[in-house]
Amino acid sequence: MILPSDQGGRSGDIRRQILWYAIMAPSPLNTQPWSVLCRDPCGIDLYLEKKRLLSHMDPASRQACVSCGAFIENLDIAAREAGFMAEISLLPSSLPGADIDLGQPLARIELMPDPGIVTDPLFSWLEKRHTNRSVFTNDPIPAEIISSLADAANQPFTTLGFSADPSFRQELGGHITNAVEVAFSAPDRFSEFLSYVRIPPISGYQYPDGYGAREIGLHGVRGWLSFLPLRISPAGRRNGLARELLLRLARKGTESAAAFGWIATKGNSRHDQIRAGRTYERVHLTAASAGVSLQPMTCVLESYPGMDDHYRRVLDLLGIPDTHTVQMLFRLGYSPSPAQSRRWAVQDFSGDDEAAAPQWITLLTLPAAFRGQQDRGPLHRARAELYTGESPVRSHPR
Ligand SMILES: Cc1cc2nc3c(=O)[nH]c(=O)nc-3n(C[C@H](O)[C@H](O)[C@H](O)COP(=O)(O)O)c2cc1C
């Protein structure tokens, strides 16, 4: 159990608590493609984890870098809440745009105590934000909420756009659905997708990564009926049926979008991707705080064979020059709360040296939000069980 410092917790625990919030970040297929090294005295090195990169779905690791940006944003917000300033250096040992050397950190973070640090109201949404893949209601999103989403960005060189125009939504939705079809048309990509998206559900089997029937909004009787054809079909037909089901869901998802949003960068360096990830996380947290659901729909942004035409049409529609890069595309709307997605435990991502942790961290009194962490209700208890459970299933062992 993690104890706060004023109750005897050790300094490494505070860093671990900050990381607990960082790993709540979104990632493609919930791969959680990061690993961290906790350095002495209070540094954190963030790496991309090779074993959790998607070589077919995300061959350039663009999405993995976007998700590391979201991780950094969460870490920054959580550090503020704990009274620390996070000094972040991106790719300290490589040039922007260069290939990633997986042996080098993507970011180096130093946590500095700062009694005057301004906390971020988005902190309360770090563990409530979730991707919602359900069909949305017909309710429009008020203009003031859309402008609060646009104001959420705080990163340079990233631009955001939103549109709720009906013909725009219809046209963009069509491109997104066609793109999903292209993405799933290659057996390698589709089987990589299915190695993280477990449908139909396997009872009694809990994965700490990826997602399943609950997270795609197919649970209860509806879920059971939707998966029945997959369950009773011969093995050779199941992938085809799964593809049809997922395409149907993508179509219904885009058709029910109340609005779409996107994040673009002028370049496409690793810095751009990370900044886009930080921006995306702030937009999603702000949407969550306003009760708006969000689902990224990003297949069209990948340069798979056969995607070029769809991507160009999307750029045209968004009014973005083809020298720029759309890093995130998402639909927005209203729907009941999404299912919570799972995570590996913090210790699965980190190597650290607690003995070397500095004394000054232990002397700080933790803020209330962190003090309450010992028991934050049933969700936290369920998670704690999953994280500390005897034998979590490792589908992608490292
Ligand atoms: C770069 C990136 C791309 C994503 N693309 C999609 C997507 O195309 N479709 C989708 O349903 N979710 C997409 N997601 C959402 C992830 O699947 C989701 O973050 C992950 O399953 C964890 O769930 P959570 O967001 O509920 O915490 C994407 C997330 C990221 C960071």
Topology:
Layout: H1 11-22, E1 34-39, E2 43-48, H2 62-81, E3 84-90, E4 107-113, H3 143-151, E5 158-163, H4 166-184, H5 187-196, E6 197-198, E7 211-212, H6 220-232, H7 235-255, E8 259-265, H8 270-289, E9 293-296, H9 308-318, E10 325-333, H10 346-349, E11 350-352, H11 359-363, H12 368-371, H13 377-388
The chain binds flavin mononucleotide.
The site of flavin mononucleotide (FMN) has 19 residues, from helix 2 and strand 9.
Description:
The chain is 40% helix and 15% strand. The protein is of the alpha+beta class and 398 residues long. The protein folds into 2 domains: 5-128 and 345-388, NADH Oxidase (3-Layer(aba) Sandwich); 143-333, NADH Oxidase, CATH 3.40.109. Strands 3-4-2-1-11 form a 5-stranded mixed sheet. Helix 1 (11-22) crosses helix 2 and helix 6 (220-232) runs antiparallel to helix 7 (235-255). The radius of gyration is 21 Å and the shape is globular. Bound molecules: flavin mononucleotide.
